[in-house]
Write a structure and sequence with these properties.
By secondary structure, the protein is of the alpha/beta class. The protein has 2 domains: 7-208, Alpha-Beta Barrel (TIM Barrel), CATH 3.20.20; 219-329, Lyase, Ornithine Decarboxylase, Chain A, domain 1. It has 9 helices and 17 strands. The protein has helices at 8-22, 33-37, 41-51, 61-67, 126-135, 156-172, 186-189, 303-309, 314-319, and strands spanning 3-6, 28-31, 55-58, 73-76, 90-93, 107-111, 139-144, 180-184, 199-203, 219-231, 236-237, 243-244, 249-254, 279-280, 288-291, 296-300, 327-329. Helix 1 crosses helix 3 (41-51). The radius of gyration is 23 Å and the shape is elongated. The two termini are 17 Å apart. The relative contact order is 0.15. The protein binds pyridoxal-5'-phosphate (PLP). The site of pyridoxal-5'-phosphate has 12 residues, from helix 7 and strand 9. Residues 31, 33, 77, 146, 185-187, 202-206 line the site of pyridoxal-5'-phosphate. Its cofactor is pyridoxal 5'-phosphate. GO terms for molecular function: alanine racemase activity; pyridoxal phosphate binding. It holds the Pfam family Ala_racemase_N. Residues 218-330 form the Alanine racemase C-terminal domain. Its EC number is 5.1.1.1.
């Protein structure tokens, strides 16, 4: 049985650190999309709730319904309006041409395009949106933007912040109600000394111990031994015989493969487990082989190693972990 262990103390520690940085738990929107970045949304939800998290963001209505009982406010980021929106949730309005497709009086946060050009309404179109919202009333409760390069040390972050500041002023002029504004994701949060007073932060990956070295990794992935054998000198293991023993070597096969959401190791180069031992040969759909390291082995407790090997980002390594892998809190 492969297994994901979630470290409760580390998760609580990270949430508290982020809340301090953000100015309190009331200023925190925890991004729980995609099964809480592969960690397990339903397992972490009660822990986040007990810490004081009241507001989360998810991808879809399906995810929102699953977490409805844990949080007061749930923002749905990637919603395609269908006219039957639920009054319990807040929906991102990602495109001004879709206003009339929402059910009237749906609670929305307006996405502002401040230069990422992925979703949202640009500053020039704000007037149009506000006029449309008079004709087809939706409950505008807030606005947000997303940084395209918060992790790159160039000027674009500051240009986007400036544009968002302008959008906040334009919007707030239209209403006596206090809007909720948010823009800071994980890398952005750790670039500033303090969050702007009028903003919540919207943090995903940092919760799980990445993007800042003071945070603690929450997830570790384990595999269990299916079988073991002596691989004799010059014998090969697995598809294509990609690894050949140069001496007799006791090897074992463990119950985790690319069907479990790992990126497929093709046997080239050295992909290492948490203890530094290399995976031997090509990874199979449901298993991989390596030196016999006992009943249970830690595949990784820092996804950064795997991200570097596969030339990708930790987000991808984590989010692909299959929901069927059992998860326990330790
Ligand atoms: C995923 C996502 C976030 C969280 O980003 P992190 O870098 O994980 O903190 C915030 N906002 C939006 C719109 C997102 O899609």
């Amino acid at each position: 049985m492969s297994l994901i262990k979630l470290d409760k103390k580390s998760y609580e520690f990270n949430l508290n650190q982020i809340a301090i940085k953000a100015g309190g738990f009331e200023k925190l929107i925890c991004v729980f999309k995609d099964n809480a970045y592969g960690h397990g949304a339903k397992i972490l939800a009660p822990i986040a709730k007990a810490c004081g998290v009241k507001f989360i963001a998810v991808k879809s209505e399906k995810e929102a319904f699953e977490l409805k009982n844990f949080f007061e406010n749930i923002l749905i980021l990637s919603h395609r309006p269908h006219g039957d929106e639920n009054a319990c949730f807040i929906y991102a309005l990602n495109d001004s041409s879709l206003i009339t497709r929402f059910k009237k009086h749906t609670r929305i946060h307006l996405k502002i395009d401040t230069n990422m050009h992925r979703n949202g309404v640009c500053l020039e179109d704000l007037d149009f949106v506000l006029k449309e919202l008079k004709k087809h009333p939706l409950k505008l409760e807030g606005a947000f933007t997303h940084f395209a390069r918060a992790d790159e040390m160039d000027a674009s972050f500051f240009i986007q912040r400036k544009k968002f500041q302008r959008a906040k002023e334009l919007l707030q002029k239209q209403s006596d109600l206090k809007f909720i504004f948010h823009s800071f994701n994980s890398p952005a949060l750790f670039r500033v000394a303090k969050l702007p007073d009028d903003e919540l932060c919207r943090v995903g990956l940092a919760q799980f111990g990445y993007t800042n070295e003071n945070l603690k990794k929450v997830l570790s992935l384990y595999a269990h031994r299916l079988s073991s054998r002596m691989l004799k000198n010059s014998q090969s293991v697995g598809y294509g015989g990609a690894y050949t023993a140069e001496n007799d070597l006791k090897i074992a096969t463990y119950d985790l493969g690319y069907a479990d959401g790992l990126l497929r190791f093709n046997g080239k180069g050295e992909l290492r487990l948490a203890n530094g031992k290399a995976i031997l040969g090509k990874m199979s759909m449901d298993s991989f082989s390596c030196e016999d390291l006992g009943e249970e082995i830690c595949v990784f407790d820092d996804a950064e190693l795997w991200a570097r090997f596969f030339d990708t980002i930790v987000y991808e390594i984590l989010v692909k972990l299959h929901p069927n892998i059992p998860r326990i809190v330790i």
